[in-house]
Amino acid sequence: MRDDFDLLIYEFPENNDIKIYPISDLHIGAKECMLETWKSFVRQLKKEQNSYITIQGDMMNNGIKSSVTNIYEETMTPMEQKKWLADQLSDIKDKILCVVPGNHENRSKKEVDDHPLYDVCCKLDIEDRYRENAAFIVVRIGDKDGAGTRNPTYTMCVIHGFGGGIYTGASVNRNERFGTVIDNLDILIVGHAHKVVLTKPEKIVIDIQNKKVSYKPFNLVQATAWTKYGGYTLRKQMLPGSHALQEIILRGNRKSVRVAME
């Protein structure tokens, strides 16, 4: 496996806008998984040019004996979940910018040193895009100009997320706090919380070269989940969250990030 801090660098020579869908929490194998909605999305993604996805974990429900998941309620075994996911991603593998596991995949890592999402990446021959904990991505759009620089350039951190918390604010606070420790960050993409959130916090920057104090914003995108409300989340009295697919638009002619939501 590649080191977490091994940058993933993508260069797009044309000055076209790039669209990125943050994908996580599909939970294949759970009865609540929105399989038909997912299949429809894949069909649409295949038709779109300049559209890509990040994968940040919990793609498989991966119910095992030691987990809180009731394995007798699963619609697929863990092995079947891996095969199904590999089949689903095979036609769009060139659109995958990175893959990071979630706590559901990490159940197997803890128990038997098995990495199911890494196995899927190996099957698709994209294991170089897999990162065990977090992925750091640089996206450069456009040809070099006369000064030998590229413009614009975007930076992203993709991570599954961690921790419970019934209220949306708890996950927002945790993720915004984490984003402030990453210098030069444009977009932080997380999953896990099943709470769709878009925020744009700022960090204070002391600019020694220009002798001034400035502010550097970054976009926090908490990705939507692909599950209906019920089952485990209902038993635990967790709050329902709607499925709302987000689109991250990176402008190709000037540096600008726009995040839209259904």
Summarize the structure.
The chain has helices at 35-47, 78-89, 106-112, 116-124, 168-179, 232-235, and strands at residues 8-12, 18-23, 51-55, 96-99, 134-141, 153-159, 187-190, 197-199, 202-207, 212-217, 219-222, 246-250, 257-261. The chain is an alpha/beta fold. The two termini are 35 Å apart.
Ordered list of secondary-structure elements with their pairings:
Blueprint: E1 8-12, E2 18-23, H1 35-47, E3 51-55, H2 78-89, E4 96-99, H3 106-112, H4 116-124, E5 134-141, E6 153-159, H5 168-179, E7 187-190, E8 197-199, E9 202-207, E10 212-217, E11 219-222, H6 232-235, E12 246-250, E13 257-261
Parallel strand pairs: 1-5, 2-3, 3-4, 6-7, 7-11
Antiparallel strand pairs: 2-12, 5-6, 8-11, 9-10, 12-13
Helix pairs in contact: 2-4
Brief descriptors of the model:
13 strands; alpha/beta; five-stranded mixed β-sheet; 262 residues; globular
What does this structure look like?
- With 262 residues, the protein is α/β, with parallel strands linked by helices.
- It has 6 helices and 13 strands.
- A 6-stranded mixed β-sheet has the order 1-5-6-7-11-8, with helices on one face.
- Strand 12 (246-250) and strand 13 (257-261) form a beta hairpin.
- Helix 2 (78-89) packs parallel to helix 4.
Helix count from the secondary structure assignment? 6
The class by helix and strand makeup works out as: alpha/beta
Task: Report the strand count.
Answer: 13
Question: What spatial order of strands do you see in the largest sheet?
Answer: 1-5-6-7-11-8
- Our measurement of the CA-to-CA distance between the termini, rounded to an integer number of angstroms, reads 35 Å
* Shape category: globular
Helix content: 10-25%
Percent of residues in β-strands: 25-35%
From the alpha carbons, calculate the radius of gyration and give it in angstroms.
Answer: 19 Å
Order of helices and strands: EEHEHEHHEEHEEEEEHEE
Largest sheet: 6 strands, mixed
**pLDDT average, as an integer?**
93
What low-confidence regions span 5 or more consecutive residues with pLDDT below 50?
none
